[in-house]
Amino acid sequence: MKTTNIKKPRTPTLFESLFPILSMVILLGGGYAAFDLPPEPLMVLSTVIAGLLVKRLGYSYSEIMGSISQKIAKTMPALLILISVGLLIGTWMIGGTIPLMIYYGLKMISPAMLYVTALLVTSLVSVCTGTSWGSAGTIGVAFMGVAMGMDANLAATAGAVVAGAYFGDKLSPLSGDTNLAALAAQVDLYEHMWHLLYTTLPSLILTAIVMTVYGMNSDLGAESVPDRITLITDSLYNVYSFNLLLLLPVAIVIYGSITKKPTIPVMLVSALVAMLNAYFIQDFALPQIIKSAVDGFNVSMIDGEVPAIIHNLLNRGGMNSMMGTLLICFCALSFAGTLALSGALEVIVHSLLKLVHSTGTMILATITCGLTMIGVTCNGQISILIPIEMLRNAYIERGLHPKNLSRTVEDSATIFEPILPWTAAGAYMAGTLGVATLSYLPWAVLCWSGIFFAMFWGFTGIGIAKLTKEEQAEMLAQSNIDLTTDKA
C-alpha cells in the first residue's frame, strides 16, 4: 500500500517573518509618504508579498482565503459600528445637535482666556463631531482668526487647537480611529474610551494648565470677540431652531456608554431621535433627512443663502463618509489575516518580548511599535491595526487586558501623528492653521505627554487593567493560544 507523504507547513524564520512587514513599511513609507500614492493598493501589494511567504511555508490558497475571511468575520461588528458613526454624524448635523453644541461652545469664548478657551471649545466640538480635521478646519480656523485679531501667539493658539482636536478624536464615540482601535483589540468601544481617560485626561489637564498660566501672563483681556466668531454663531442661529430636545441624541449615547448597552442599537436609536428632530423641529423634508444619513449633510439642503464660513463646519457625515476608512480596514485585515496564518507575528513578538520583563517594558515596547509605524507609514489607521494585531495575544498571555494595548497604541500613534511634519495630519494642521508643525509642537502638550503618562502607569501598575483567570481563558480560547507554549 502506497503512503502519501503530506508536507506539513513549517514555521518561518525571523527574517522570513520580518520580510512582509518590512516590505509594507517600505512600500507605505516610499509610496504613500514620499510620492503621495493611495495606501490601499500598497496594502494589497503587501498582502500579496505576505501571501507568497505563506505559500512558501506550505499553506494553500484556500487556507489563505480562509484565514482572511476569519479575520474579517471577527471584526465585522466593529466595522458596522464605523458605518453607524457616519449615520450618527449625518443625522446629528441635520437634526441640529452638533450645530447646537458648536454654537454654545463659541459663545463661551473669553478673550482674556483665549488659549485655554481654544483648547476646551475645540475639544468639545471634536468630541461632538468625532473629527479632529473637521474641528481644526472650522472652529480651529475661527480661533486662529481671533488670535490674529488680538495679536496673540499664533503657535500657542495652534497648539491649543491641535491638542483639543485630538482629545476629541480619542474620546468621541464618533471617531473613526477610536472605533478602529477598539475594533482591532476586540474591546468594547465604551470600555476602550473610559480606559483612555487614564492617559488622555491628565494630558488635557496639563495642557489646560500650561495654556491658562501662559494666557494669564498675556495682555488679551481688553480685546473683543472678532466678527468672524459672531458671523459663525449668528449664521448657526439663523439656520437652526435651538432647544434642549436637540441634546436628547447625545443623552442617549451617554446613557448607553454609562450602562454599557450594545453600541449599534444605541447609535441607531440616537440617530432615529435626531432624524425626528430634523423633521419636526428643523423642518427638513424626509428625503433630505435620509440623504443626510446616507451621504452626509450639505448646506444646499438649507433654504436661503448660507455664509461660506460655515460650509466646512456643516458639510459632513453620512454612512458613505466611512467607506474610505472601511476600505483601508479591509486591506489591512487582509494583510493581517494572511500574516496570521504563517505564524510570523508570533515569531516576531516572541523575539521582541525577550526584551520585555515587566508590564512597564511591555508598554514601552508597544509605544516603540506605535511611534515607528506612524513615523514610517504616516497612516493612522495602519499604525493602529498592525501593532495591535502583533501584540494582542502577548498581552492576553501575560494577563493584561487588551484595552491596555488599544489605549497605548492610540497614545503613540493616533495622538502623535499631528506633531510629525511629514505625516498627512501634520501637513494638514500646518496648512489649515497657518503655523509650522514644529512651531506648534511644544504647545500641543496633549499630543506628546500621553506617552509619558502611559509609561508611568505601565511601570507603576496604576491604571493597568488585568484579566481574571476566566477572562484570560476565554480570550485564549478565542485566539487559539496555548498557555504551555514557550513565550520566550
Automatic annotation (TrEMBL):
Topology term for the membrane: Multi-pass membrane protein
GO MF term (any one): antiporter activity
Coarsely, its chief localization is membrane
Q: Where is the Na+/H+ antiporter NhaC-like C-terminal domain?
A: 164-462
- The answer, when asked if Repeat is one of the entry's keywords, is no
What highest taxon heads this organism's lineage? Bacteria
The entry's keywords: Antiport, Cell membrane, Membrane, Transmembrane, Transmembrane helix, Transport
Protein family per UniProt:
Belongs to the NhaC Na(+)/H(+) (TC 2.A.35) antiporter family.
What is the protein name for this chain? Answer: Na+/H+ antiporter NhaC
